[in-house]
């Protein structure tokens, strides 16, 4: 299958509407969670401006473990409550961090990262993992990103057969 994702245009909210439509088309009828995460990470990494990492961490044996991603090699395991990913997982609340260097306990997997957003993946009340995006640009993420990425995570979870 060949997939073409045209560049995103318009205001940020419009771009996320386009992006989430692209995610829906990319996933299609595929139910495999790992395959869908891998394609979604690639799409986010290539479609959203100013990213240096996009990917997933999955809950395994009480901690977050690296899943499909795009970008430099990353930290493999993150304890709940530690760093931005661990806090998002522990609180089950999306974390929008304009300056990771000012975030207490930030885990620096890539020294070039300056801002981060982490969306918890919750299905049937169960924490599945997190969607994590990093940027070398301070203040890169805002409420439009939060809303758009939470919607994208919802599409992924609804379409996939979860383990």
Describe the structure.
With 163 residues, the chain is of the alpha+beta class. The protein contains 4 helices and 6 strands, in the order H-H-E-E-E-H-E-E-E-H. The chain has a 6-stranded antiparallel sheet, with helices on both faces. Pfam families: GAF_2. It comes from Sandarakinorhabdus cyanobacteriorum. InterPro entries: FRMsr_CS (IPR000614), GAF (IPR003018), GAF-like_dom_sf (IPR029016), Phosphatase_reg/MetRdx (IPR051330). This is Diguanylate cyclase.
What is the compact description of this entry?
The protein has 163 residues and is an alpha+beta fold.
Number of helices: 4
Instruction: Report on the biggest sheet.
Output: 6 strands, antiparallel
The total number of structural domains is 1
Please tell me what the overall shape is.
Answer: globular
Structural class: alpha+beta
Q: Give the % helix.
A: 25-40%
Q: What proportion strand?
A: 25-35%
Low-confidence stretches: none
